[in-house]
């Protein structure tokens, strides 16, 4: 759960902000609690045995070694970085280490039963960012069989804020709790997202790397991938849907936040954020990218009396300005949680959308971005690569952008946002 470099830089800049006194800062995650010396000694011995087993599997080039390494890393880092936040977590660590040792022994026998299992499964992959092993959780439908040719819908779920969500606690939870939604015809992918960053930066990459890992191990339908989440996970769903709109069959953000200024009320006090900070919000704020949601059906949810209803209200305002209508399901007299009746409606709407699947080749496209970091709807529709670019429609690529506003001499809009559009006349 060590912080990525960009996040550390952000924390450093915040610490230097004149409006934040040093005594207001607190460590996140919080300091851990001490565990008895005999328990620590036992855990360190188990972790050492598992670490040796992981090293042997990795050296042997076993494809599934990350599925074992996630258990070692979770417990080892809890020990190393004082990330036991409650006394009972030492027992969790013992169970996690034992599960890892069991998997290691199975692989050494040439077995991997979790790859064929239904229900709750935890797995891992090696990230291209830093070559670290990252965990993810799965809910595999009971009807899953390894030999089936059926291609599964995938619902990617972004978790809410939890300052004690170490990798140890994430694995423990994902081995026991299926989560808020478990569609019987879908694989649910629970993302760790590198702790609590609303799936920005390295957390954003975690989504795509975890999806690639799931594609590698399971037959999934690339046209029926949905992004969902609640609270901080709702913020992640807004971000991912607006910034990568053409890749999803649907998006279902619940609560959360969708922009910076109004949610944080930063202009209600002095000093106001400097201009350079406000400009950086363009990387972050989903409201600025609202027109992109023309490409992805979006079913938003809010509790009627939840402060975080503000997120959907701001997106509704931004989408209305673009001539788009947002579906917004509101739980009556409900605070920060899902209303049972609303869950039924959300599921019904998403099931119907998923049945149709993603429209790979829309007849018209409107798209905006302020940065080449987000210069594509999907692999077929993108713009702004270096040098001249032209997309020719084909039977398998019905639309494309035939302009490159970032080429040498191209005009730069005053507000910094490019808005290419395309309409297929065929």
Strand order in space, largest sheet:
1-2-4-3-5-6
Q: Please outline the major beta sheet.
A: 6 strands, mixed
At the first level of CATH, what is the class of the largest domain? Alpha Beta
Architecture of the largest domain, CATH level 2?
3-Layer(aba) Sandwich
- As residue ranges, the low-confidence spans are 3-22, 385-409
**Helix run count:** 11
Strand content: 5-15%
The end-to-end span amounts to 51 Å
Estimate percent helicity: 25-40%
Mean pLDDT across residues: 88
Q: TL;DR of this structure?
A:
The protein has 426 residues and is α/β, with parallel strands linked by helices. The longest helix is centred in the N-terminal third of the chain and has 23 residues.
What does this structure look like?
With 426 residues, this protein is an alpha/beta fold. It folds into three domains: 24-114, no CATH class; 117-359, Rossmann fold (3-Layer(aba) Sandwich); 367-426, no CATH class. Helices cover 35% and strands 14% of the residues. The protein contains eleven helices and ten strands. The strands form three sheets. Strands 1-2-4-3-5-6 form a six-stranded mixed beta sheet, with helices on both faces. It starts with a helix and ends with a strand.
């Amino acid at each position: 759960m060590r912080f990525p470099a960009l996040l550390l830089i952000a924390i450093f800049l915040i610490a230097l902000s004149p409006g934040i006194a040093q005594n207001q800062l607190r460590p996140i995650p919080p300091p851990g609690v001490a565990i008895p010396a005999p328990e620590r000694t036992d855990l360190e011995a188990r972790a050492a045995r598992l670490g040796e087993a992981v090293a042997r599997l990795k050296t042997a080039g076993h494809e599934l070694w990350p599925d074992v390494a996630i258990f070692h890393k979770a417990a080892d880092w809890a020990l190393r970085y004082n990330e036991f936040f409650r006394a009972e977590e030492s027992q969790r660590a013992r169970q996690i280490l034992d599960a890892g040792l069991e998997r290691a022994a199975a692989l050494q026998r040439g077995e991997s039963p979790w790859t064929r299992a239904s229900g709750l499964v935890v797995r891992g992959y090696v990230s291209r960012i830093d070559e670290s092993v990252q965990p993810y959780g799965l809910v595999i439908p009971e009807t899953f069989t390894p030999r089936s040719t059926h291609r599964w819908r995938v619902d990617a779920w972004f978790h809410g804020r939890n300052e004690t969500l170490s990798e140890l606690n994430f694995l423990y939870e994902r081995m026991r709790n299926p989560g808020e939604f478990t569609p019987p015809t879908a694989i649910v992918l629970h993302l760790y997202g590198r702790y609590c960053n609303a799936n920005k930066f390295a957390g954003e990459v975690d989504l795509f790397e975890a999806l690639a890992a799931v594609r590698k191990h399971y037959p999934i339908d690339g046209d029926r991938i949905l992004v969902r989440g609640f609270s901080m996970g709702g913020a992640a769903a807004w971000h991912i849907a607006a910034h990568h709109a053409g890749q999803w069959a649907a998006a279902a953000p619940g609560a959360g936040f969708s922009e910076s200024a109004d949610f944080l009320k930063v202009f209600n006090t002095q000093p106001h954020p400097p201009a350079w900070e406000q400009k950086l919000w363009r990387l972050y704020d989903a409201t600025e990218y609202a027109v992109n949601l023309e490409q992805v059906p979006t079913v938003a949810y809010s509790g009627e009396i939840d402060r975080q209803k503000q997120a959907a209200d701001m997106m509704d305002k931004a989408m209305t300005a673009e001539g788009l209508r947002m579906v917004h399901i509101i739980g009556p007299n409900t605070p920060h949680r899902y209303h049972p009746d609303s869950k039924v409606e959300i599921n019904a709407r998403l099931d119907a959308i998923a049945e149709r699947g993603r429209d790979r080749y829309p007849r018209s496209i409107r798209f905006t971005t302020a940065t080449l970091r987000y210069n594509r709807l999907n692999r077929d529709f993108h713009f702004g690569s270096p040098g001249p670019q032209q997309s020719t429609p084909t039977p398998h690529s019905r639309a494309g952008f035939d302009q490159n506003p970032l080429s040498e001499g191209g005009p730069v809009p005053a507000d910094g946002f490019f808005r290419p559009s395309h309409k297929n006349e065929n």
